Amino acid sequence: MASLAPPLRTRPPAPSRPRMSAFQINLNPLKEPLGFIKVLEWVASIFAFATCGGFKGKTEIQVSCPKVSENKTITATFGYPFRLNQASFQSPSGANVCDVNWKSHVLIGDYSSSAQFYVTFAVFVFLYCIAALLLYVGYTNLYRDSRKLPMIDFIVTLITTFLWLVSASAWGKALTDIKVATGHNIIQELEPCKLPVACYFGSVTSMGSLNVSVIFGFLNMILWGGNAWFVYKETSLHSPSNTSASHGQGGVPPPSGI
Asked: Which residues span the membrane (predicted)?
């Protein structure tokens, strides 16, 4: 009598691993304060580094030589990153005026540290806003279901708010010093501007765009400080009991914002 073969044992299916949510555009977060303010922060950061990093100006003085009735114009060109101690005076023809080698005389001050910190920080904020908007719009479910991402976003928002205050304040103080160093006081600092050579302050390029850069620095601080509340609402700190309960039951915490 033929023996019966033992039944085949089937292995239980392996537990499925959680997969990262696929990129899917969802513009609804942009209608909420969290996403809408992030767009404003992105635009404001562009104005912050563009108005400062793209500035170029010059200051002019009129030089009157003895025995010569005609005045000569001497110009010093400066711009970002505002190393004024490297901006030398030059005549239009490049020749000496009143037997003075004006190329050896420069403006006073080096404000590159404040300017470069401000512009570099603004560029990093610009890049972070792009990454955050991609996360809000393309990975809405991933951001909503995660507990770490909103917390990281909240911490970065607080740090960024503080750094905007520091960088804008430092750059505002440096801009005040730049205006003094390139204004009327430059005549008193130039060694050749003494008898018999007479020097008169001519003009200096308007620094309205630099004033705008300082304004946008503090505007960014206000935007990031105000947005901290909406980012905080996405974290488990806002409603820790409900969030922990939903995670403990294997569910998804209810969205508080986006």
From this structure: 117-139, 151-171, 210-232
